[in-house]
């Protein structure tokens, strides 16, 4: 099984990065192939609503790093969407990625994939309702199964390092993937 971790935080080594890494560690311990991608290291442009993805080859016409990421998404069996909570939604890079998943509506190449969402926030799980719902609706539209979520109270950089139970939970999520 291939597990792709998408880190939608600008902070390398921050809470989102650490939690996604821990899930990938658990998946690796179960002999799954893992890969982590930092979205802030990529050039991801906004969707321009040209609708090229809805006709012909069902591909996005915007030439940027999403072209490489599309293949990684197609190859993955499980996709981890990690983003800190920004104003009760995802970070800008994660939102750009979500908007650019539009080619998969017509191509259906993400049908049957599994997803995990990871969201650290200053206010905790209760503040994540709108963001979780955005992911749920998007996954339903793309026929992706949401199999787990981690909504963690953490704000300061790498604060989850002081939460061994949270890190262990993340590891176990990855370890139990089937």
Short description:
The protein has 178 residues and is α/β, with parallel strands linked by helices. The chain has helices at 15-29, 66-75, 92-99, 103-107, 129-142, 164-175, and strands at 2-7, 33-38, 78-82, 114-121, 145-153.
Write the layout of secondary structure elements.
Elements: E1 2-7, H1 15-29, E2 33-38, H2 66-75, E3 78-82, H3 92-99, H4 103-107, E4 114-121, H5 129-142, E5 145-153, H6 164-175
Parallel strand pairs: 1-2, 1-3, 3-4, 4-5
Helix pairs in contact: 1-6
CATH class: Alpha Beta
Give the biggest sheet.
Answer: 5 strands, parallel
| SS elements, strand count | 5
- The SSE string, one letter per element, is EHEHEHHEHEH
- What is the domain tally? 1
Fraction in beta strands: 15-25%
- How much is the average pLDDT? 96
Spatially, the strands of the biggest sheet line up as 2-1-3-4-5
Backbone shape: globular
Task: Flag low-confidence runs.
Answer: none
User: If helices are DSSP runs of H or I spanning 4 or more residues, what is the number of helices?
Assistant: 6
What is the helix fraction of residues, given as a range?
25-40%
Specify the structural class: alpha/beta
Looking at the overall shape, the CATH architecture is 3-Layer(aba) Sandwich
Question: Would you give the CATH topology?
Answer: Rossmann fold
Instruction: Kindly provide the radius of gyration, computed on alpha-carbon positions and rounded to a whole number of angstroms.
Output: 16 Å
Distance from N terminus to C terminus (CA atoms, Å) equals 8 Å
**Could you give me the name of the CATH homologous superfamily?**
Flavodoxin domain
